[in-house]
Amino acid sequence: MMQNMPFVTKNLLIANVLLFLASLLVPQLTSIMGLHYWQASHFHVYQLVTYMFMHGGWTHLFFNMFALWMFGCVMERTWGAQRFFVYYLICGIGAGLLQELAQFGTVFLDLSSQGATVGQIIRIASIDPSAPEMLNAWTTVGASGSIYGILLAFGMTYPEERMFIFPLPVPIKAKWFVIGYAVIELVMAFESPGDGVAHVAHLGGMLFGFFLIRHWRKAAARQRSTFTGWNTYRGTAQDDTQAATILGKIRRWMHLDREDNASDNRTYRTTSTHQSDWDYNARRKQEEAEIDAILDKIRRSGYSSLSEEEKKKLFEASRK
User: Fold this and answer.
1) Were both Cys, which of 48, 143, 247, 251 would link to 96 (CB 3.0–4.6 Å)?
2) Measuring CA to CA, how many Å separate 319 from each of 200, 245, 289, 314?
3) C-alpha span between 296 and 234 (Å, rounded)
4) How far apart are alpha carbons 36 and 128 in whole angstroms?
5) Ranges of H-type helices in the chain
6) What is the pLDDT of residues 101-119, one digit of tens each?
7) Distance between CA atoms of 305 and 239, rounded to whole angstroms?
């Protein structure tokens, strides 16, 4: 199973499991890599990344990794490794930032109700010199922010996909599954603020994921206007249809309607009396070699893994 798993998803799973096992052997790792509240003495900026590789127990680890395997494989194959990894990190960092903001809100409301000013709350040690040390116990761990971002991405990319969710007896569409999860987390954030679960971080991962996907789609819309009639990546399931149309034209141009392992039967001009024919044949072979390489890349990593230059070459080839 691991051999067929996409590169980033597989390595994220391995990293999370190994670091969790390491934290069992060296408990101090959780304090070093976990995300401390920003006014705590043990807080460091790098913890906004490292905290998502720590977990609070076997159950916490299992459900996060199960969701990463289930939905991460799909989204990495849809987007490609690079975009998926960037999305994973940004959702995790965004979740950490919102969790920090929520914790500050809790501190602010508590201290301001006791008469503390905004300046005193920001310089919390001026109120109680031991406060930064006490706040070290307020630590966030887990990949849940990134996982909830991936759930959102799946729902936005494949909204009509039907899913069986225990204990529901009938399948539900992915879009309703994601909306339901978001509503539950929002309610829990207000109803159970002291249950030890970072509900705000979960919502933060989904929020940052939503805005990132919207940004990518708007950027893709601007790119489409550059090349008339060419629909570039939009971050939805429509990409496969768009790419298939382009690739179909390319195959007809390159005479590629054959099995992958069939012999190369492309034809070229063979009039050796004109130098232009030789030049034409050489250019044609070079173009076909470049297109072959791009097609191989699509088969390995998906259409969205192509660079803008490679997409442009595909588009130009499809017009020939």
Assistant:
1) 48
2) 49, 11, 17, 9
3) 21
4) 18
5) 7-25, 28-33, 47-50, 58-67, 73-79, 81-112, 118-122, 131-134, 144-157, 174-191, 199-226, 238-254, 275-301, 308-318
6) 999 999 999 999 998 899 9
7) 12
Residues 157 and 236: beta-carbon distance below 8 Å? yes
Q: What is the pLDDT of residues 155-193, one digit of tens each?
A: 999 999 888 776 777 888 988 888 887 888 888 877 766
Amino acid identity of 215? H
Q: Is 152 exposed, middle or buried (0-12, 13-18, 19+ CB in 10 A)?
A: buried
Residue with tokens 């909204």: 159
- What the block records as the tokens of 26 is 């060296």
* Alpha carbon distance, N-terminus to C-terminus of the chain: 41
Q: How far is the C-alpha of 189 from the C-alpha of 76, rounded, in Å?
A: 30
